[in-house]
Protein 1
Amino acid sequence: MGSNSKKLSDIKLSVLDLVPIREGKSISDSFQHSLELARHVERLGYTRFWMAEHHNMPGIASSATSVLIGYIAGGTSTIRVGSGGIMLPNHAPLVVAEQFGTLESLYPGRIDLGLGRAPGTDQVTAMALRRDLQGSVEDFPAHVSELMQYLSSSNSTARVRAVPGEGLDIPVWLLGSSTFGAQLAGILGLPYAFASHFAPAALQVALKVYRDSFRPSETLKEPYAMACVNVVVADTDQEANRHATSLYTSFLNVIRGKALPLQPPVEDMESLWDGSEKYAVQQMLRYSFIGSQKTVQEEMQAFLNDTQVDEIMVSAGIYDPAARLRSYELLAALSKKV
């Protein structure tokens, strides 16, 4: 996929908000800043605003994902709002169909349903969520098909129906960080989103598997791939790199097994990590574009040249809410969205 046929200005930009809980701030504060961000990027012309399902994480407040989607959709007017994603092993497919049917009925034409097969947490918390762990990832394709059946008009004669949900046009996306979801998305003819913002290793092979296995469906005639990346843009490279230290420390804490809120930026990372930790964080954050507009534009265009994705979703692990708004504003400007 080395063709340079796509330009950054040609493709859609979207937002993945992890609803970070900042050190020293409240969870209510996190929700308010997420709504402020959603309104901001809506004005800037971003396409979607997604939130991910995580549990038992003191730094992330998006555990009740469908509730937050309603909050964000209710506070905006045009941007698509959805899940990036709902972790299907944690939920009965019927419940998801009903929840997103309710959201789509409240905010018609604006709801996306992204589905993942990971638990979004550790095994102990997964047990608390599900009460048992008898299922496996091998159940995911059957659960996706069951969910899509509940959302279809053809389910109107079934004994179990999703009300609301049945017959509604709710785009279903499959999410992944490996080739499993890529192949399933291709076989089902669904759009595919890859989590390259934290799991970059399999991006290229997953995109190839998805495109090679794609079968046209009623909802999608050609493959449509989105990749999520980390982006921190500021007026200077130096300023952006300082803001990005909050992103680095959050991943460093993951490696160390520490559960902490999002930390303020620091002046020097070298005193915080050793060589092996630095390497591990850099590998996880391979697709992170940090710097001034010029720096980020060049790096993101190179990423687009390599992947030829149809859409880029952006996560910004920035502690300062004003700097986060500014980063998305600068990114929109460099991609000619404003």
Protein 2
Amino acid sequence: MNQHDHTPIDDLLVKHLLRETSSAENRVVEEWLAETPANRHYYQQLQLIWEKSLHLTPSTLIESAGDEEKAWQTLRQKFHTPSRPKPVIPLPWAAAAAAAILLPILFLTFFGWPGQENTQVLSSNNIILRDTLPDGTTITLNTHSTLTHSRKFKHRNVELQGEAFFQVAADRDRPFQLAANGISITVLGTAFNVRTDSATTDITVETGRIRVTNRHGAIELGAGESLTLGPDDSRPQKHPSPTVLHHYFHPRVFECHDTPLGQLTDALQEAYGVHILIADPVLRQQKLNVSFHDESLDRILSVLTETLNLTSTRKGDSIILNK
């Protein structure tokens, strides 16, 4: 889908946010989201604006609705569309009203007014990128990750694709808001890690507290707690996180407390760009209590093989661990 066009999928997405879709329509939305990362990013934008709209006053909503035609005229000029498209999918009045209000706001928020550059995009590509946001929040982006935010950063809203570690500057009047994979995270001041891929989102809190919200509910996480959410998960469920492996990329810190060997080797693969194979599933569950702080991979492997009485064999970029 071209994001510049108002199409039936827009109305269906709004209907999905209102939880008024049928099972068949849910499948259409899920298939569309699975097509491209751009589709998922577009939906996250719409979801974030929908969540924000829940806090608007009736007068604000009426004003937004009154500006609807002006917004569409602006969009037509920017994207050279001949006229405002008409919705094709019949919707209940609530969904239709939400579409009329939210979609112009979505486009103007995402694309900005003509000639105006509102968005700042940080992309790490092949390096680990460290930066400071306008409010003083420091971030560390893992490789191949992207963070998007408004240039003025008035409302402290960011969107993440990939993985990042955040040390959020405290501001009780302006909670820090992060959107990723259809999940909203609200923060006052804390340090936490978020990792997303096409299927799951992993969140680990190091200090402070955060609030995690998806379309099924919300939950608060404190220091030493984490959760993993998939695309079809129901209400978020947290669990203790005694293992500190989320520092594997900034810097290379691995703290294991009864941590399965398989979890450690998964983190080592990401940090050092190698493939580590453990053929024995029992060996993958072997528990470890050890810490490594910015050490070489050879040093780490040496400790592991000596501690667990293993052999380590290299074949190109692959490392095989076995008894």
Protein 3
Amino acid sequence: MTQPTPHPQQTALSLAASGVPVLPLRRGKVPFGNCPACAGNACGGRPNMKTPGPCRCPGVCHAWAAATTDPAVIVSPAWASAWRQAVCVGYHPGGAGLTVVDLDDADAIAWARTALPATRTVATTRGEHWIYRGAMASRNAVRPGVDIKSAMAYARYLGPGTGTMTDLPDAVRALTAKAPSPARPAPHAAIRLTGGGDGACPHRTPTYLERGIAMAEQQITAARASIHATVYRTFLAVLSRHGGCGCLTDTHITRLFTAAQVKGETLRHCADAWANARTTLGM
């Protein structure tokens, strides 16, 4: 016998119990509009829109930032009207430590099968969601028919999918890197990424540097408080150990900046922290 489709609120509670921040989506697969107190962002938004969770007002506000894992909020009277109108459940991938590669059509799927490592796959109306373990900055239209949904974005929940989820690969991270304009310097060039290559190189193997960057990403990601200070200290440690020989590349720094931005830092804050760390070390 065919099992009845769970109500969106029940699906949301199940996802929240597994640590996935959720929110109701209305017709058109979009979030509910801000409540009157937040119309036009009059409330100032959630604290800098940096982290998911309910704002201090009635209703489901501020799109992806409303996503929550708190069952008391999900079943609260403030969200009741939204659930009655909801057509499906959305979730904040970055808040769950995930990245969704949204493939809109058959051509995008064919490209992914040759360019990206296999991972958990969820069928969508027109294409597929490929879900990886790890968060990063979101960006739409990274190539024809391909969007990246992770930090500060939402995705529609379409079921558990099939296949084994794998770690977020550099091939996906690289999709959000903008090519430098011929008339402009390369990304982050204004803050000088490395020490110029005149120091002793401690990197006997590429694995040594890779391990250092991965540990730095993990330290930023694990921070629960004092994010500014943690990012600065981590940048300082990376530069003191790896910044004097010229081995650091734009790709390495982009990974660190992305980890910091997922925790709520702005690109400007990242650049300032990097520059301050360099100044402290006399680079």
Protein 4
Amino acid sequence: MLIAGSAVHDLLPIASTVADLLERVDVLQLLEEARAASPRWHVEDLRWEGDGSGPSLLAPIDLQVVKACGVTFAGSMLERVIEERCMGDATRAADVRAELADALGTELADVKPGGPEAERVRRELLERGWWSQYLEVGIGRDPEVFTKAPLLSAVGSGGAIGIPDFSSWNNPEPELVLIVRSTGEIVGATLGNDVNLRDVEGRSALLLGKAKDNNRSTAIGPVIRLFDETFTVDDARQVEISLEVCGTDGYWLEGVNDVSALSRSFEALVEATAGRHHQYPDGFALFTGTLFAPTQDRDESGHGFTHRMGDQVQIRAEELGSLWNVVGRTEDLPPWDYGIRSLWSDLSRLRKEAHLEAR
């Protein structure tokens, strides 16, 4: 669907899937033509997921693969190193954080990945025994790129996000998400929450899949904003993303992810994801990483932040809207049971209905 002001237009007559639509080189012209027609709904008709009283606002992607780049900001890179050295134990984080600051002796935000200064820092930390796989991808030649979620598994704004019962140290990750065509062209952007299990990945980077890909562990939305003369890819580089977490216990956490502080360009992240080495025929959504890593204590001093059930998480950007979700226990939330077969079945049914209406 297309949201234009308060009008909501049905785009199914134009393209069967979002992936189909975004592969069209004339997509902006098609959307302008759609705006000229009478809307099927209005914004006030939309409902949060599961409300049952109207159309639900789902994640604004479908057949695109959900990829993610990690360790793309100096601040969050250091937090990954801390997780690793803590072996996932939150009680050790404050002490390790202080040790790391002493060992570095330099501001990593100013170090260009893959450059001579990065190599100097690498040698120094090796001598101190402080080199880490997270520093390797943070300031080394190659960025971290991983598959965040299967097709159709992301939840949209209003959907519950899940923390599994095996995690006791976790946090939201507010990120800019790039929307990329099969050709590698970046065509738009949206917001994302790369729900993160710090204790799981902290025990071993080989547990990345277990830490990142669980039921309702990916939120994307509220909508995709395509690049045009009013909002360009260069505008997206300057987006400031705010985060608010409001707990049922009265706890309040605020944070900011300044996209301009990315240590690598959008183009470098896309190039590392797709090219002659890897193709995505239906395009992909690419989480670009987060500057935000919460260290504010929630319970005991030195234990930092972790989610509680019922936390309301709001990720906002003036240019992209608001992605709002409530935290629940993964195992107790509705399971992911709508896959590609279900999508194809529904599309087939809708085409038949449209054909009968046309007759």
